[in-house]
Write a structure and sequence with these properties.
single chain, alpha+beta, Jelly Rolls, 11 strands, 16% helix, globular
Length: 187
């Protein structure tokens, strides 16, 4: 379940340094997400919890994604975040705006996102109800399923699918044009 080399380091067993982490890191144009879970922080084995520290660039978008094995509670440390989740096809999405100190909950398995609406970097902290929450982006299937299935699902011509896939944004991304223009960051 976890890296045995990391487990041999006594400091690593009890302290997780989110700001200088070398493991559990996802970094792209929209920011830096750091996850402490049972796979990279031995103290969480059998603890039933995990945590993320999200440093989100101005206009940064943690695009729609899912944690199949955990509910999440996030708190905005600073900045303003637009957040939302959607549980299933027959329900309406729940959209909220979080200011510093505000929190919200995303139910287990819900598709959800976090968007830094501001022109300054912002941070949110996410607590999860599982030591192994799992994660996948809502667009992750596009590059993993057979092209014919993806093309039929999206109503996209199969022949042009490869260039479409290469054009998908990174995660977290920085491509919400309206915000980029407001913050004078658009090119």
């Amino acid at each position: 379940m976890y890296d045995k080399d990391l487990a041999s380091d006594p400091q690593f067993n009890y302290v997780f340094d989110f700001k200088n982490a070398k493991v559990g890191v996802t970094e792209a144009s929209g920011g830096r997400l750091v996850s402490a879970n049972a796979g990279n922080f031995p103290a969480l084995v059998k603890a039933g919890v995990s945590m993320n520290y999200a440093y989100v660039e101005p206009c940064g978008l943690v695009a729609p994604h899912i944690h199949p094995r955990a509910a999440s509670m996030i708190i905005a440390s600073n900045g303003t975040f637009l957040t939302g989740y959607w549980v299933e096809n027959s329900t309406a999405p729940v959209i909220n705006t979080l200011q510093a100190g505000d929190a919200t909950v995303f139910p287990q398995g819900s598709v959800h996102f976090e968007f830094n609406m501001g022109c300054e970097p912002a941070v949110f902290i996410a607590a999860r109800s599982s030591e192994d929450p799992g994660s996948y982006t809502a667009t992750g299937f596009i590059s993993r399923f057979p092209p014919a299935i993806v093309a039929a699902t999206l109503g996209y011509p199969e022949g042009g699918l490869e260039s479409f896939i290469k054009g998908l944004p990174d995660f977290p991304s920085n491509n919400v044009k309206e915000c980029l223009l407001k913050c004078k960051k658009a090119t």
